[in-house]
Amino acid sequence: MIEAEIYITLKKTVADPQGLTVKHALESLGYKEAEQVRMGKLITIRLNLKNKEEAEGKIDEMCRKLLANPIIEDYSFNIRCLPTDLQ
Amino acid sequence: MIEAEIYITLKKTVADPQGLTVKHALESLGYKEAEQVRMGKLITIRLNLKNKEEAEGKIDEMCRKLLANPIIEDYSFNIRCLPTDLQ
Predict the structure, then answer these.
(1) Tell me: the pLDDT tens digits for A38-75?
(2) What is the domain range of residue A18?
(3) Of residues B19, B38, B58, nearest to A33 (C-beta)
(4) How far is the alpha carbon of B44 from chain A, nearest alpha carbon, in Å?
(5) Residue B38 is nearest to which of A33, A44, A66, comparing CB atoms?
(6) C-alpha span between B50 and A55 (Å, rounded)
(7) In a domain, B54, yes or no
(8) Is B10 on the interface with A (CB under 8 A)?
(9) Domain count, chain B
(10) ipTM, 2 decimals?
(11) CATH number assigned to the domain comprising residue A9
(12) Whole-number Å distance between alpha carbons of B7 and A7
C-alpha cells in the first residue's frame, strides 16, 4: 500500500478571498503579526500499488485530470510506502 | 519573516463524504487502485516575526482557537524562516 499526500495551492497571482477572511479573523483575535494567509487543499490518497514510480505517475495524472485546476492552482506531492500493519 | 504550513486533517474516525466523492470520481476515470481518499486543508501563513519558537507558539494557538476544529480535526505544522529576498 502506498500513501500520497497531495498539496494543492492557489497560484501566487490568484486572489484568495478565503485566505483574506481568515487573516481578518486572526487579526480580530489579536494576531496582528499575520501578514498573509493562503488557503489550499491537502488530499491524502491510499493506493493499492507496490511500486513507488508507478504510484508517482498515477498521482501526477490524477492531479492533472481531476484534483487540481492547472489554470489557477499548483500542486506537489509526497509518496511513501505504508508499513504492513497500517494497511 | 516566518512561513508556516499548517496541515488540517479529519480525525480517522470521522466520515469524509467529500473524500468519498473524489474516490468515486477517480474510479470513474479508471483509477481503480485508489483505496481511500481523505480531504484536508493546507493553510500557509506568513508571520511578521523573527523568532521561530515564538512563531511556533502563535501558530499552535491559532490552530486551537480558529483554524482547526479539535473535536473532528487534527493539525500539524512546519515552520521555516523565509530568506530576505522572498519577503
Answers:
(1) 999 999 999 999 999 999 999 999 999 999 999 999 99
(2) 2-86
(3) B58
(4) 5
(5) A44
(6) 39
(7) yes
(8) no
(9) 1
(10) 0.92
(11) 3.30.1280.10
(12) 9
